[in-house]
Amino acid sequence: MKANLGNIDRALRIIVGLVLIGLSAAGVIGWWGWLGVILLATAFISFCPLYAMLRINTGKRR
């Protein structure tokens, strides 16, 4: 697994993931808010399988 997420992308995933989880836990949105866990996981490992399939890389270019 080669990192394919940049810092801004990772920060946005963390923020959106936490918001989704928080809203789901508070009962504001349904169970699908727990999908924010996927956003958090991909942000922390700096790798998104969907980006890899689509050949997208928001990280640093070499």
Layout: helices, strands, pairs:
Blueprint: H1 7-25, H2 36-45, H3 49-54
Helix pairs in contact: 1-2
Domain Inner membrane protein YgaP-like transmembrane: 1-61
Organism: Halopseudomonas formosensis
Protein name: DUF2892 domain-containing protein
Structural commentary:
- This protein is mostly helical.
- The chain has one domain (7-54).
- It has helices at residues 7-25, 36-45, 49-54.
- Helix 1 (7-25) packs antiparallel against helix 2.
- The longest helix has 19 residues, at 7-25.
- The radius of gyration is 13 Å and the shape is elongated.
- The model has no long low-confidence stretch (mean pLDDT 94).
SSE topology string: HHH
Helix amount, in percent? 55-70%
Distance between the first and last residues' Cα: 16 Å
- What would the average pLDDT be, to the nearest integer? 94
Number of helices: 3
Taking the sheet with the most strands, its summary is: none
Radius of gyration, in Å, reads 13 Å
The global form is elongated
Oligomer: single chain
How many structural domains does the protein architecture include? 1
Protein name: DUF2892 domain-containing protein
Organism: Halopseudomonas formosensis
Pfam family, one: YgaP-like_TM
Keywords: Membrane, Transmembrane, Transmembrane helix
